[in-house]
Design a protein that fits this description.
It contains 16 helices and 14 strands. It has 410 residues and is an alpha/beta fold. The structure holds nicotinamide-adenine-dinucleotide. The site of nicotinamide-adenine-dinucleotide has 26 residues, from helix 1.
Length: 410
């Protein structure tokens, strides 16, 4: 395949930026666009015309894109609830899928996703962009090299103040509002879980066996509504939000490691994914951008270590893939500090080469199911809940895969 003919399904905030990256690729043509709202379909058409010159087919019914012969692949960036149903329809129609992240609403939809891929074998990639980010890739490489010894525990967070986005959900026609009103769970697990799963070889020699999840009370959103009553939809005054402000989930893995995930999106805070890897010989910490090795004990607090990775850049930078070593300003500016560009390039490269995706349907199912399982655990006072093995035992034989094509860390 010389060129990938792409359809875009869902044209909200995320899609705007990601479509721009696709449109910048010489080997991608965006030939069809879809949103459930006419105005957004028109925005998408305008974007394609402006960037590439062609007028794409536009529709409010994604099935019309799936019926077209001139489409090879679809990018799905709709509301969370529709990712899996649309991905299933796309695979059934023979269209390769690049699916945005979110959490699942039931185990059944995760099984359906896996079953559809196993039956159709249509390429499917789960777009967990943090797995492509520089720090997470570096930490994974350092861990795989054995520099941190035996890995025992990983932690991370989705620490992102989303109060403004959530309360303006009605005006912005955004899905998070209804989710925060009606659900209490780890609703967005994959930004931290994806990179941890890569460090620990989940679905590739290891697997997640169970979780416990607890949620704090919910008051951040209610307080925000009170404090911003002049700007916020009056219907939200006095309304109870179901989503706890801080949700913590501990996952236990078959090989004995634990992972701690924190969802922290409805209280005032700065952005932080807090990705941390702990081993018998050292620790990687994203927040201080540091590698702490056994024997560095003359330092007492983490402060001395801030940016110590940067001071030792020669030592570690060789472990990064070439695409990060040679990244251009344009690529860095394309979205989320470069990781979105690198991720989409990897999707297109693998699709053209007919090579399996690095983040596949088993990763999507295992990582997304944490949302509905955490909901069950929280409902039952933090009760342990089993995590299914979507690979049906194959995780024991599945080999580690290079996250970026041609990038090996031995
Ligand atoms: N990986 C990342 O860093 C990242 C960042 C932001 C968002 N996301 C993900 O991207 C997705 C979209 O998020 P967003 O913030 O752009 O939301 P958004 O609400 O701005 O966009 C979603 C779009 O999907 C459209 N849509 C809904 N149902 C549809 C249907 N049946 N057919 C066609 N279009 C439909 C909506 O009208 C909307 O325009 C979410 O799943 C989110 O988790 C990922």
């Amino acid at each position: 395949m010389d060129k990938i003919r792409l359809g875009v399904i869902g044209f909200g905030c995320r899609s705007y930026g990601m479509t721009e990256i696709f449109l910048g690729f010489e080997d991608v043509d965006v030939l069809a666009v879809c949103d459930k709202y006419e105005d957004r379909v028109q925005n998408a058409i305008n974007k394609v015309i402006e960037k590439k010159g062609n007028t794409p087919f536009g529709t409010t019914n994604y099935k019309e894109i799936l019926e077209r012969d001139d489409i090879d692949a679809v990018f799905i960036a709709t509301d969370w609830e529709l990712h899996i149903p649309i991905a299933i329809d796309a695979m059934n129609a023979g269209k390769a899928v690049a699916m945005e992240v979110g959490g699942a609403y039931s185990l059944q939809e995760c099984y359906d996703l896996v079953d559809t891929w196993e039956r159709t074998r249509v390429p499917f990639m789960f777009l967990e962009n943090c797995c492509y980010n520089k720090e997470e890739l570096l930490a994974t490489a350092i861990a795989k090299k054995g520099i941190l010894g035996k890995i025992v525990h990983c932690s991370g967070a989705y620490g992102h103040d989303l109060r403004n986005e959530v309360v303006h959900g009605k005006e912005n026609r955004h899905y998070r509002l209804r989710n925060y009103l009606n659900r209490n769970c780890e609703n967005y697990p994959t930004h931290e879980l994806g990179p941890m799963a890569k460090v620990l070889g989940i679905n590739r020699g290891n697997r997640m066996v169970s979780l416990v999840s607890v949620a704090s009370k919910s008051f951040g959103m209610e307080q925000y509504v009170i404090d911003n009553k002049d700007k916020v939809d009056p219907d939200l005054q006095g309304v109870d939000f179901a989503q706890g402000d801080i949700v913590q989930t501990i996952i236990t893995c078959e090989n004995g490691e634990t992972m701690l995930l924190t969802l922290d999106t409805s209280l005032p805070r700065s952005y932080n994914r807090a990705f941390t890897v702990r081993g018998t010989k050292g620790m990687y910490e994203q927040f201080t951008n540091s590698v702490f090795l056994d024997g560095n004990n003359e330092y007492w607090t983490g402060k001395e270590f801030i940016d110590n990775y940067l001071n030792n850049a020669d030592k570690y930078n060789d472990l990064l893939p070439d695409c990060w070593k040679n990244i251009t300003k344009e690529q860095l500016d394309a979205g989320h500090g470069g990781m979105d560009y690198i991720e989409l390039r990897d999707f297109i490269d693998r699709l053209k080469a007919g090579i399996p995706m690095a983040l596949d349907v088993y990763d999507a199912a295992a990582w997304m199911c944490i949302s509905c399982l955490s909901e069950e655990s929280i409902k039952n006072g933090g009760k342990p809940v089993e995590i299914p093995d979507f690979t049906k035992g194959e995780y024991k034989n599945r080999k580690d895969v290079d996250i970026i094509l041609g990038y090996h860390v031995e």
